[in-house]
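Supplementary Methods. Inverse-folding protocol.

Structures were first reduced to a discrete structure-token string of length 304. This string, shown here, constituted the complete conditioning input.
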């Protein structure tokens, strides 16, 4: 497959497009990011790499971190985890409170904010040193110990986290949050403020494309059956109320973040990441979705 040629075509096409989206501003620090940043990186299971643009510049991974926290929780806990968080698409925005009230504080899935907050709560109950252990996990799947959480982004989100705090309070009233609300909020905001580049994220996502094994040292970090489940959750829930649209247009499991990143995988083939900060009205990178739609169209392959 002529991947580099295909990526070059995608880059040329995107540079000719007008961006109608907006950079996330509800976290003030994210509003400072240059809207013209654009990078893409593709890492194949045969260890070849392709990319363009700002592929090596780090950005705020935000909700993409929810895939890593879910993976860490599933590697530590048994299936009783899914008594506290479901695996159904929500069809609602990422930070919605609506379903939680009539579904008794059980979030629809681990990739919406409510679900990721429950996962953060389980990590706090399980790990000795949750923030450090979380970062260690990212270091392990990327083979890169320089990746860290950005304190400014953390502080910025912390000041405006009333909605996530209300999700936590509501779930705590139903008994589905075991730890102190501030502690859970803290870990969640810390994981969202982690910064990684497209190439680092593609390396990390290789465990989802390679049945739970890192490609750089062939270590089985999580079982293939758990990877199957995580990929299924990404496919059905990775884009909130646009999960259907992403499946329809792109046809790969993936996850977006309000930092403008999207990571996706083709099992057995590749991990691919794209970064373009302006978001569409559903909170997903406008040109990121376009880039991935073109990738599966120009290669002729998706998981469908
Ligand atoms: N930290 C962000 C929030 O909780 C993550 C949202 C996202 O990336 N969709 O609002």
């Amino acid at each position: 497959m002529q991947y580099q040629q295909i990526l070059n075509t995608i880059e040329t096409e995107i540079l000719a497009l007008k961006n109608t989206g907006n950079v996330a501003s509800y976290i003030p620090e994210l509003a400072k990011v240059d809207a013209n940043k654009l990078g893409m990186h593709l890492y194949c299971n045969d260890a070849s790499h392709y990319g363009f643009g700002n592929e090596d510049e780090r950005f705020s991974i935000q909700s993409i971190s929810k895939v890593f926290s879910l993976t860490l929780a599933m590697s530590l806990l048994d299936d009783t985890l899914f008594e506290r968080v479901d695996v159904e698409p929500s069809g609602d925005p990422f930070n919605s409170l609506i379903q939680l009230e009539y579904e008794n504080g059980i979030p629809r899935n681990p990739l919406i904010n409510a679900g990721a907050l429950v996962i953060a709560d389980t990590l706090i109950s399980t790990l000795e040193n949750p923030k450090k252990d979380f970062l260690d996990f990212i270091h392990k799947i990327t083979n890169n110990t320089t990746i860290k959480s950005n304190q400014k982004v953390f502080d910025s989100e912390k000041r405006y986290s009333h909605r996530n705090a209300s999700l936590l309070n509501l779930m705590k009233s139903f008994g589905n949050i075991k730890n102190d609300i501030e502690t859970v909020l803290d870990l969640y905001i810390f994981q969202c403020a982690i910064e990684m580049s497209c190439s680092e994220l593609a390396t990390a996502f290789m465990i989802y494309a390679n049945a739970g094994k890192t490609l750089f040292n062939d270590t089985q970090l999580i079982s293939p059956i758990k990877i199957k489940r995580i990929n299924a959750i990404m496919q059905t829930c990775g884009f909130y109320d646009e999960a259907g649209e992403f499946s329809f247009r792109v046809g790969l499991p993936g996850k977006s973040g309000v930092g403008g990143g999207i990571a996706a995988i083709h099992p057995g083939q590749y991990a691919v990441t794209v970064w373009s900060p302006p978001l569409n009205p559903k909170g997903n990178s406008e040109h990121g979705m376009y880039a991935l739609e073109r990738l599966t169209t120009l290669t002729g392959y998706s998981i469908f």
